[in-house]
Write a structure and sequence with these properties.
It contains one helix and twelve strands. The protein has 155 residues and is mainly beta. Among the domains are: 37 residues, no CATH class; 37 residues, no CATH class. Strands 1-10 form a two-stranded antiparallel sheet. Strands 2-9 form a two-stranded antiparallel ribbon. A two-stranded antiparallel ribbon has the order 3-8. The radius of gyration is 51 Å and the shape is elongated.
Length: 155
């Protein structure tokens, strides 16, 4: 038996997804200590000349009219330390909950063409569409075998 079939399907399924999470509480603590030693520090500032420019003289020959004398700065070494530092942070993310909505739509189209051949024998209560396999022993086996031989030889 030969058969043909044709099918075409179009669909546009849509779906909505709604999710909601409860508020998220969190708490964290950070701690630490710190120690440093600085020094000694010293600086010397030598004489700072103050010059005056006279318009008719060349600039490289400006006379010194005053000076600020040498300055020495010094700082002895010292320690800097912080024994314990702690920071505690608490909070809530999404006080009223966190909600997310998503809408999606999928368009699809399917076309099928099927050609086929179904073969087999039909007995009293047996249907075999599997090809030329032997049928199990059955009371009408001899009858079916004789007809099948006639069909194969063209009689």
């Amino acid at each position: 038996m030969k058969f043909k079939a044709y099918a075409q399907m179009k669909s546009c399924p849509g779906f909505d997804l709604v999710t909601k999470f409860d508020p998220l509480d969190f708490e964290t603590t950070i701690g630490g200590a710190f120690q440093a030693r600085l020094g000694p520090f010293s600086a010397d500032i030598s004489e700072i000349p103050i010059r005056m420019t006279i318009p008719f003289m060349k600039r490289c020959h400006s006379p010194v009219i005053a000076s600020i004398g040498g300055i020495k700065l010094g700082l002895d070494s010292f320690n800097l330390s912080v024994d314990k530092v702690a920071m505690n942070l608490k909070g809530v993310v999404g006080k009223d909950g966190i909600k997310a909505n998503m809408h999606a739509k999928v368009d699809c189209e399917t076309t099928m063409e099927v050609d086929g051949i179904a073969s087999g024998r039909i007995g009293l209560s047996h249907l075999d569409l599997g090809g030329d396999d032997e049928l199990p022993d059955h009371p009408t086996q001899a009858c079916c075998d004789n007809k099948d031989k006639e069909d194969k030889h063209g009689k």
